[in-house]
Amino acid sequence: MINDVQPFDRETAARIARAFRPARWHGNRYDYYYTLAKLRSDPLYPGVLAALRGCDAPLMDLGCGLGLLAHTLRGDGQRQPYAGVDIDAGKIARAARIAERTGLHDARFTTADLVQALPDHHGSVAILDVLHYLPDEAQHAMLDAAAAMLVPGARLVIRSGLGDDSGRHRTTRAADWFGHLAGWMQTNPRRYPSRAFLEQRLHAAGLESSFQPLYGKTPFNNWLIVATRT
Ligand SMILES: C[S@@+](CC[C@H](N)C(=O)[O-])C[C@H]1O[C@@H](n2cnc3c(N)ncnc32)[C@H](O)[C@@H]1O
After folding, report:
1. Adjacent-strand bridge partners of 115
2. CB–CB of 35/20 below 8 Å?
3. What is the CATH number of the domain that holds 114?
4. Res. 2: pLDDT tops 70
5. Does pLDDT of 193 surpass 60?
6. What is the distance between the alpha carbons of residues 55 and 160, in angstroms, rounded to a whole number?
7. Domain that holds residue 122
8. Which listed residue, 33, 92, 156, 211, has the most CB atoms within 10 A of its CB?
9. What residues are paired with 125 via a beta bridge?
10. CA torsion, points 93, 39, 1, 206, in degrees to nearest 10?
């Protein structure tokens, strides 16, 4: 159980975010400031790193964005093969460029719409802040496919805002809509999975799951879910 997970300290966040600085001084610094702010404020990656530590199965990161998870893994000394997939071709191009420029160990990135098809994979799976952007059927398909990807000892690590009647949920929903309207996220949020739905779906797929809040200092209703094959 990972209790009271906090974001990275300022030094660690700055070290990881450095990879996202533009190659030239006059280049665009948006990704750098975005990753720096996220690493400093969100306990997401410390929570996921703790959940994956000690497991060297190859990792598939579904909806990987800029591949920030891969950088935090290497910074943590975790060297499992990493593959990231995202629908946003611009993010994937930047993720691949940055990985190459910084010599990121064993990381590859692919553009794909996960609503249309899910990749072949055998190992661990990460689904971080992605589920609520997918229509219901695609959420179901992604969870079932992710469960089928797990090899013995591998882990399915999900971070998601949970749908419930809390004020935290309302704040999460408002912030995600704002992110979409402001152009930070191409896709609009659909449905936030409930805890009961996730528990039932993972159990039906033969997985044992644990849930813990991943609030850090944020006002959001974010939870970390770790599932393994029973
Ligand atoms: C909030 S971001 C999270 C990014 C990354 N997982 C992280 O935690 O930093 C959600 C990501 O899901 C991706 N996404 C949304 N719908 C998708 C789809 N249908 N197929 C693949 N990726 C998708 C978005 O492009 C975006 O990069």
Report:
1. none
2. yes
3. 3.40.50.150
4. no
5. yes
6. 22
7. 42-229
8. 156
9. 60, 156
10. -20
Q: Kindly tell me the sign of the dihedral angle through the C-alpha atoms of 48, 69, 132, 185.
A: positive
Task: Give distance in angstroms: CA of 72 to centre of ligand 1.
Answer: 17
- For residue range 141-151, what is the model confidence (pLDDT) as tens digits? 999 999 999 99
Say how far apart CA 69 and CA 75 lie, in whole Å: 10
Q: Is the CB of 87 under 6 A from ligand 1?
A: yes
Answer whether residue 93 shows pLDDT above 70: yes
Tell me if 204 is assigned to some domain: yes
The C-alpha atoms of residue 156 and residue 125 are separated, in whole angstroms, by: 5
Domain count across the chain: 1
How many Å lie between the centroid of ligand 1 and the Cα of residue 85? Answer: 8
Structure tokens at 85: 């997939």
The answer to whether residue 122 scores a pLDDT higher than 50 is yes
**Structure tokens belonging to residue 26:** 């006059």
For the CA of 113, the closest atom of ligand 1 is: 20
Residue type, 20: F
Q: What tens digit of pLDDT does each residue of 29-75 get?
A: 999 999 999 999 999 999 999 999 999 999 999 999 999 999 999 99
Q: Is 65 in the pocket of ligand 1 (CB under 6 A)?
A: yes
The separation between CA 135 and the C-alpha centre of its own chain, rounded to angstroms, equals: 18
Domain presence at residue 101: yes
What are residue 179's phi and psi, to 5 degrees?
Answer: -60, -40
For residue 187, report the distance from its CA to the centre of ligand 1, in Å. 9
